[in-house]
């Protein structure tokens, strides 16, 4: 399982691998899960506060997960720049939305075809990221920023 948690003040990047043993009849399966802390480094837009959950978001490897992020007060984010990034990667962009479209050419290759925003929700201030087919390599600190 991958655990995604958030904090709103500063970046925290903690990696903690643990194993769980599950009993299935005569067999014991060893299952690895990854704890991932996702936090905002700084709010990049002064007009709205970026809001993220205080409880963990949990996903199994191979499933889709939504990393919630919205603006308060609500503002239309369709025509502004929304950046989802992993500062530890090069290039750092997980998704970059600018002027009504995603800029796919500067996205980190490991996220190609696996990230999206909810286009119909951007005008309501919902800038959440959908990450499809979660991989163990998705572990890391994520940044949601509006420019």
From TrEMBL:
Record's keyword annotation contains Repressor: no
InterPro entries: Ig-like_dom, Ig-like_dom_sf, Ig-like_fold, Ig_V-set, IgSF_BTN/MOG
Example of a GO biological process term: regulation of T cell activation
Any one GO cellular component localisation term in the record: membrane
SUPFAM superfamilies in the record: Immunoglobulin
Keywords attached to this entry: Disulfide bond, Glycoprotein, Immunoglobulin domain, Membrane, Signal
Protein location: Membrane
Domain Ig-like: 48-147
Official protein name in the record: Ig-like domain-containing protein
Organism lineage string: Eukaryota, Metazoa, Chordata, Craniata, Vertebrata
């Amino acid at each position: 399982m991958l655990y995604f948690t958030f904090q709103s003040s500063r970046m925290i990047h903690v990696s903690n691998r643990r194993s769980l043993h599950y009993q299935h009849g005569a067999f014991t399966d060893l299952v690895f899960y990854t704890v991932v802390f996702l936090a905002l480094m700084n709010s990049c837009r002064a007009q709205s506060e970026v809001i993220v959950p205080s409880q963990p978001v949990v996903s199994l490897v191979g499933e889709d997960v939504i990393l919630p992020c919205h603006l308060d007060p609500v503002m239309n984010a369709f025509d502004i720049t929304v950046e989802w990034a992993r500062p530890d990667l090069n290039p750092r962009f997980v998704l970059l939305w600018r002027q009504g479209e995603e800029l796919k050419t500067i996205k980190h290759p490991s996220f190609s075809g696996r990230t999206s925003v909810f286009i119909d929700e951007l005008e309501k201030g919902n800038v959440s990221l959908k990450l499809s087919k979660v991989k163990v390599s998705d572990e890391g600190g994520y940044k949601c920023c509006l420019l």
